[in-house]
Design a protein that fits this description.
Layout lengths: L8 H11 L3 H4 L1 H14 L8 E5 L5 H9 L4 E6 L2 H9 L8 E4 L12 E7 L8 H11 E12 L5 H9 L12 H11 L2 E14 L2 H10 L16 H14 L7 E13 L7 E2 L5 E2 L10
Parallel strand pairs: 1-2, 1-4, 2-3, 4-5
Antiparallel strand pairs: 5-7, 6-7, 8-9
């Protein structure tokens, strides 16, 4: 079992609360991952009755899921109160959004009561990956489906290197690789999990621009052992100097790598993907929609 970093959950929650007002302006990676998760759902002939958007943020995923599964009940859950306030605003008098303030590792739902759990970039900020997987497994129905995205260890590798070169603790906590996440799915009892990865690159004119973007999306180091003080100007300048030596593109802009890991798995009792020859993963025809 992979060692989990000790995270300051209260600090993470404060960061997301503070980011809620301007989150959409900065959450480029979140939007990319959300669209990919939604596109994968379109391949499945699956009509869930109750959907949980786990770690809903400001609620764009909730609205997308409502549009895709018009007859389903969609519940939004987040641990940040202000994120739920933003999500609730997306609803209307005739069709309000069901919002739940809660802990992803202690879900306030009955066992086997959810048909689809959708989670976009919640896992990187979960203090216990195994506990998260077990709890999702518990609430899923026998024909339930778990689809999620998380971030891999190559995310912000340039920033991490610049911090270390400057003798400082990196500004983001350690992240698990695809194999660690897949192993956690297996330990939780999911059937034939499927994992894959997408890598992209963002660029910024300065370290301050990158810092503002991370702050605007609520992403901060959640390590309980992190330095609580602010970086001084000299330290900040030293980190940026190291960044500019090895983390810039041909135009001199700072590069920020992002590794997005996607995972999907069926709850036992459903029709899971089937293993084919050469270790391919084959989805049964009964699970695919017809196309015209």
């Amino acid at each position: 079992m992979t060692t989990m970093p000790i995270l300051d959950v209260a600090a993470l929650r404060r960061g997301f609360d503070q980011a809620s007002a301007h989150y959409e302006q900065h959450a480029v990676i979140q939007a990319r991952a959300r669209e990919e998760l939604l596109s994968r759902l379109s391949l499945l002939a699956f009509q869930p009755r109750h959907i949980l958007d786990l770690g809903c943020g400001t609620g764009q995923g909730v609205m997308d899921l409502r549009q895709r599964f018009k007859s389903a009940r969609v519940t939004a859950l987040d641990s940040a109160q202000q994120m739920l306030v933003a999500t609730r605003r997306r609803g209307s008098f005739w069709k309000p959004v069901t919002c739940v303030l809660g802990d992803a590792q202690r879900l306030p739902f009955k066992t086997g009561s959810i048909d689809l759990v959708f989670s976009n970039l919640l896992a990187p900020f979960s203090p216990n990956l195994d506990a998260l997987m077990r709890e999702v497994r518990r609430v899923l129905s026998p024909r339930g489906y778990w689809t999620f995205s998380t971030l891999g260890p190559d995310t912000l590798k340039e920033l991490r290197a610049a911090f270390l070169s400057a003798g400082r603790q990196p500004a983001i906590h350690p992240l698990f690789d695809m194999h660690d996440v897949g192993d956690a799915l297996g330990r939780a009892g999911f059937a034939d999990p499927v994992m894959d990865v997408d890598r992209c690159l963002l660029t910024y004119p300065s370290l301050m621009a990158l810092h503002q973007d991370l702050k605007g999306m609520g992403a901060r180091s959640g390590l309980a052992t992190r330095s609580k003080g602010l970086l001084g100007r000299q330290v900040f300048a030293r980190i940026e100097s190291h960044y500019q030596r090895s983390g810039v593109d041909t135009d001199g802009r700072l590069m920020a790598s992002c590794e997005i890991i996607y995972g999907q798995a069926w709850c036992p009792g459903s029709e899971p993907p089937i293993r084919g020859r050469r270790q391919e993963t084959v989805v049964p025809l009964s699970a695919l929609q017809r196309t015209r």
